[in-house]
């Protein structure tokens, strides 16, 4: 039931229907605009339904009040196993209620609270709760504005927790001290199998410590450490150390580091000898800056969107469902119309100036998926103008296409002129 945008009366009616349902085990209410009031009605489901095990409430703008209602309902619920409450604008206050859920509930095994910008104070509370939890096996706490102090508290909780096997905490800016604290915690938590610390401002010291610690991480299988501050030299040394002692690793993501010959050689050895896949970037310096006008235009648009906190989903909210095969095509003009209508731009004069700068190539079509790739590339700090070309980049320009069609038309006309006409009498002979 995604994207329905349920009203308060809808939420009340639906909760009454589901409350005593005997077979419903999974409920997906992603992006329904429930708000705190709607959440209040759905909490009745959690208090009374004994069959629901999988609940998705992401992107519902629940806020701190919604988190409070949820925590209250989950105190007595011992049936829910998987809960996704990501991107709900909890903030610090709501984050503390999330800590209460982790501490009080004894049935939830998978919890996603990513994208709620809970900050350090709430992360400290979650770290303490994590140390006392005996049921949680997967926690996604990425994109939450957690810094060094919060990371250290999470590390302390991770040390004590003996059940957590998946810990995803990317895009949080832990820094050197926070990162090292988490690596030390991983050494003491011998059951962790997947760790996500991508884009956490980790540096070479943390990577070096991680390399020395792999031997102690007996169960670690998947490691995400891309988009950090690692130098190519230290990244190469880290991968080289894995050749001799890969532990249980089967996958390492170290994207964002320019791939030197040494790094690529180490990655190749890991794949050949240990079947360990390393995900890394090709060196952008070996590619020429693209001359494609469309790419340059899209980069400028994305840089403008970043200033106003606009995402591709804000402009085209349903594109992932409508464009599964990546064939939905748009133009620059349609992107500008979407920006005007999204309600997130306060200064339209700047938008107009950008529109005036991007006159050339505005008629070129491109897919929304390609637009999303450019957005992710720019936001992650990559040099998009040197990145691997998208499909649209390889297409001929409109002018070249017109010239090609005209050339084919002339050739066809010329062939018709020179083709000899054979008299009917000769054909009979």
UniProtKB/TrEMBL annotation:
Q: Under what name is this protein listed?
A: Uncharacterized protein
Q: Where is the composition biased (Basic and acidic residues)?
A: 397-409
Per UniProt, the keywords (alphabetical) are: GTPase activation, Leucine-rich repeat, Repeat
Give the Gene Ontology MF terms in alphabetical order: GTPase activator activity; small GTPase binding
In Pfam terms, one family for this protein is LRR_6
| GO cellular component labels | cytosol; nucleus; perinuclear region of cytoplasm
- Kindly indicate whether the keyword Repeat belongs to this entry: yes
**Where do the record's region annotations for Disordered lie?**
395-429
- GO terms, biological process: nucleocytoplasmic transport
Keyword Repeat applies:
yes
């Amino acid at each position: 039931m995604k994207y329905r945008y349920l009203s308060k009366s809808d939420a009340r009616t639906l909760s009454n229907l589901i409350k005593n349902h005997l077979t419903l085990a999974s409920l997906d209410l992603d992006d329904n605009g429930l708000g705190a009031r709607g959440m209040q009605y759905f909490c009745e489901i959690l208090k009374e339904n004994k069959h629901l095990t999988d609940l998705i409430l992401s992107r519902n703008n629940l806020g701190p009040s919604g988190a409070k209602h949820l925590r209250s309902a989950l105190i007595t619920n011992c049936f829910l196993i998987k809960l996704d409450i990501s991107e709900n604008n909890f903030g610090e206050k709501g984050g503390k209620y999330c800590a209460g859920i982790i501490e009080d509930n004894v049935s939830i095994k998978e919890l996603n609270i990513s994208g709620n910008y809970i900050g350090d104070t709430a992360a400290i509370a979650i770290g303490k709760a994590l140390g006392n939890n005996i049921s949680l096996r997967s926690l996604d706490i990425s994109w939450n504005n957690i810094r060094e102090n919060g990371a250290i508290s999470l590390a302390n909780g991770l040390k004590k927790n003996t059940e957590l096997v998946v810990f995803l905490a990317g895009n949080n800016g832990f820094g050197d001290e926070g990162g090292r604290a988490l690596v030390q915690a991983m050494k003491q938590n011998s059951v962790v199998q997947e760790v996500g610390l991508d884009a956490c401002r980790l540096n070479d010291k943390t990577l070096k410590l991680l390399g020395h610690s792999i031997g102690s991480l007996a169960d670690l299988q998947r490691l995400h450490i891309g988009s950090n501050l690692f130098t190519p030299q230290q990244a190469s040394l880290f991968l080289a150390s894995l050749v001799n002692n890969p532990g249980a690793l089967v996958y390492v993501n170290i994207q964002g580091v320019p791939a030197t010959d040494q790094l690529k050689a180490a990655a190749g050895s890991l794949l050949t000898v240990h079947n360990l896949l390393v995900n890394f970037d090709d060196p952008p310096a070996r590619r020429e800056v693209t001359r494609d006008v469309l790419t340059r235009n899209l980069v400028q648009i994305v840089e403008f969107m970043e200033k106003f906190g606009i995402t591709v989903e804000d402009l085209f909210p349903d594109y992932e469902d409508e464009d599964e095969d990546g064939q939905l095509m748009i133009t620059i003009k349609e992107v500008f119309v979407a920006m005007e209508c999204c309600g997130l731009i306060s200064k339209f004069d700047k938008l107009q100036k950008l529109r005036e700068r991007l006159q050339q190539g505005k008629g070129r079509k491109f897919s929304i998926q390609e637009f999303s790739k450019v957005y992710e590339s720019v936001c992650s700090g990559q040099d998009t103008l040197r990145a691997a070309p998208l499909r649209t980049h390889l297409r001929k320009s409109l002018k070249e296409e017109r010239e090609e069609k005209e050339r084919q038309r002339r050739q066809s006309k010329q062939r018709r002129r020179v083709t000899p006409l054979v008299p009917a009498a000769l054909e009979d002979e």
